[in-house]
Write a structure and sequence with these properties.
Length: 202
């Protein structure tokens, strides 16, 4: 056998090994890529979390602004969060009494409360396996109607501060909260926000 034939056989073996390495590498790249894709679909960006904080604070601000300054109430919840109870004017033209120069208030109050998120229990564990421990959601309660205002509230961060301390009647409400959520790489992002609400119906 000439040295030329030996080189040819050796080259074929090299090609077979190279092909095997190529296939293994391709499989590994695919696995990393597909794992990245699934994380991407569940993660969010810092800006999206900031937007969510702003959205829920705006919603609360617009509503609290109309509240009766004489009957606002803050209560402590077992989770360390606070609830807010307040009364809004009657809807429509009957919402203001021109003779008395003040709003007519609804008979039933609005409440902002918190409760554990879907699949979560208040036990120090991540029961629903989303990377967050004991996360909660803020619920707006109006009679029998319950609407989730936001999810992924960090336990114990929803607070309402009424001013002045000598009230009622109150003139302002300060709302603070913190939301947590995993980003595209499953790291926990946090965004906190505050809103200072001036009560309109003094
Ligand atoms: Ca969880
Ligand atoms: Ca839990």
């Amino acid at each position: 056998m000439t040295s030329r034939h030996r080189r040819r056989g050796f080259t074929f073996l090299e090609m077979a090994i190279a092909l095997a390495i190529f296939v293994i590498t391709l499989t590994a790249v695919y696995m990393v890529f597909s794992a990245g894709q699934s994380t991407y679909t569940t993660g969010i960006t810092r800006q999206e979390l900031d937007n969510q904080v702003r959205l829920v604070l705006d919603e609360m601000t617009n509503e609290i602004r109309q509240a009766n300054p004489a009957t606002l109430q803050v209560a402590a919840l077992a989770s360390g969060d606070q609830s807010l109870t307040f009364f809004l004017p009657v809807e429509g033209a009957a919402g203001f009494d021109p003779a008395a120069g003040r709003p007519n208030w609804q008979a039933a109050p609005i409440q902002y409360v918190t409760e554990p998120s879907e699949g979560e229990l208040d036990n120090g564990l991540d029961d629903n396996n989303n990377g967050l421990t004991d996360e909660r959601r803020i619920v707006r309660v109006a009679g029998a109607q319950r609407v989730v205002m936001t999810d992924f509230l960090r336990e114990g961060t929803l607070a309402f501060t009424l001013g002045p301390p000598a009230g009622p009647p109150f003139q302002s409400v300060r709302v603070t909260l913190t939301l947590d959520y995993p980003d595209q790489r499953s790291r926990i992002l946090s965004a906190n926000g505050a809103s200072e609400v001036s009560l309109r119906n003094q």
